[in-house]
Design brief:
Rossmann fold; Ribosomal Protein S5, domain 2; globular; four-stranded mixed β-sheet; 3 domains; alpha/beta; nine-stranded mixed β-sheet
Length: 461
């Protein structure tokens, strides 16, 4: 008898179909999610008696969703003012970036006012206690357990009834009701679903630590990010003390807020004014530096960009950038060479930001171009000058968003001259004691910066 041909396989995450079984979905790249079409029958749950009738939305108690402060101001800023009872927050980041240190500090500060349960699936209780003692995170109402079994963790939640629970991490827990090792797609889905259900039913605010893959995305099924209320991304340069926390998803607040932290040997501390970290501490102006103001969420940060241009001894000059998009830097160099007559085509060029900050928005293009032009001409720019604007392929300087907010922050830090695109301040006034010069293209911006540069002092003096 001929074997019955399978109608195909469908991904349980995104619905992608294929005629043959494969281990990884070709659409969402999830592993182990392909199931045979028609293998499982559709089951419909029987109707049950309603125990709690639906009520008009105006009669629902809004006090149950009032947020309370975690005690860490920068973390509250990212969450939208605090943490909401019954909410589930997923904190993701690379290994060793400081997730556990931050959440242990949050748990200890919150335990000063309400009971908190910290579940560690990666370290023993003694190891977590040693870190807590090092960073000063010991509290009487902070309860600690080291468990990897989901049923035991749920029992701890029922026993302690905490107001806040921290699970580090969701990929280390496993359920005995599901086949497979901890961390696979089925286990992560089951563990996350059970914890979210318990948090909603008991009104427990829950912080879940999530691992990331090599490309920086959160490990596990994509559904995990849809189930939780808030997704927080923790990132930063491993060789820098600066850590940035961004809200990728937030049901209770904006997603354009950024929290800045300083990671030290004594713990992690919030930075209310981090702008000074991104400026070099020098008293002598040197060629190849220009300041700009970036917007990290709603927060303006004054950042310095440094460039070095040196003669090349190889046929293909070197191009290196740190903290900037390399393709965008290459585009700016091409515009400089073609539209502004800056001879950078046969020179080694190195561009970097100060303090380990990463700049992704195009408003820093003009500052990058002026820093490279300053290095080519070997003439320093005034240390009180900054530049804002996006550079187009034809050499024009385009406006950036939030120019007035950026200039106010720069004026507070002592900058007196700003090069901005034409019409950038059409609806607002410049800050007092700041000269704002409007430029239309890259050539005029270089000419304006050159006319305000330091006198003919040799570089480095």
């Amino acid at each position: 008898m001929a074997a019955t041909k399978s109608p195909g396989y469908r991904c349980s995450e995104c619905g992608w179909t294929t005629v043959k079984w494969v281990g990884r979905c070709g659409e969402c790249q999830a592993w182990g999610t392909l199931v045979e079409i028609g293998a499982a029958t559709v089951r419909t749950a029987a109707a049950r008696r309603v125990e709690r009738s639906a009520q008009p939305i105006a009669q629902v108690a809004a006090e149950d969703a009032q947020s309370w402060s975690t005690g860490v101001g920068e973390f509250d800023r990212v969450l939208g003012g605090g943490i909401v009872p019954g909410s589930v927050v997923l904190v993701a980041g690379e290994p060793g970036i400081g997730k556990s240190t931050l959440l242990l500090d949050v748990a200890a500060r919150a335990a000063a006012h309400r009971p908190v349960l910290y579940v560690s699936g990666e370290e023993s209780a003694a190891q977590v206690r040693a870190r807590a003692q090092r960073i000063g995170a010991l509290a009487d109402e902070l309860y600690l357990t080291s468990e990897t079994d989901l049923g035991t963790v749920l029992a701890h939640l029922d026993e302690r009834a905490p107001a806040l629970a921290v699970v580090d991490s969701v990929q280390t827990l496993a359920s005995g009701e599901v086949d497979g090792a901890a961390g696979n797609v089925s286990q992560v889905r089951e563990v996350a679903g059970a914890l979210i259900q318990r948090a909603k039913a008991a009104g427990i605010a829950m912080l879940l630590v999530g691992h990331v893959t090599k490309d920086g995305s959160i490990a596990g099924p994509r559904m995990l990010e849809h189930l939780v209320d808030v997704v927080v991304q923790f990132d930063g340069d491993r060789h820098s003390r600066l850590r940035l926390v961004r809200a990728v998803k937030n049901r209770y607040g904006p997603t354009d807020e950024v929290g800045c932290f300083d990671l030290t040997d004594t713990g992690i501390h919030g930075l209310e004014d981090p702008s000074g970290l991104f400026l070099s501490s020098r008293h002598v102006t040197v060629p190849g530096t220009c300041a700009t103001v970036t917007l990290e969420g709603r927060r303006p940060l004054v950042t310095e960009i440094q460039a070095l241009v040196a003669p090349s001894e190889i046929p293909t000059p070197r191009r290196a950038s740190v903290g900037l998009d390399s393709s965008r830097v290459a585009m700016i160099m091409a515009v400089l060479d073609r539209r502004a007559g800056a001879p950078v085509g046969r020179a080694d060029t190195y561009v970097s930001t100060v303090g380990g900050v990463r700049i992704t928005e195009p408003s820093s293009d003009l500052a990058v171009a002026l820093a490279i032009a300053s290095a080519v001409q070997d003439r320093p720019l005034p240390h009180t000058l900054l530049a804002l604007g996006e550079v187009g392929l034809s050499g024009e300087v385009r406006p950036a968003v939030g120019v007035s907010r950026r200039l106010l922050e720069a004026s507070r830090l002592g900058f007196t001259t700003a090069l901005v695109p034409v019409g950038a301040l059409a609806d607002s006034t410049p800050p007092p004691r700041m000269e704002v010069v409007e430029v239309s293209d890259l050539s005029s911006a270089i000419e304006q910066a050159r006319s305000r540069s330091s006198a003919s002092a040799p570089a480095g003096t």
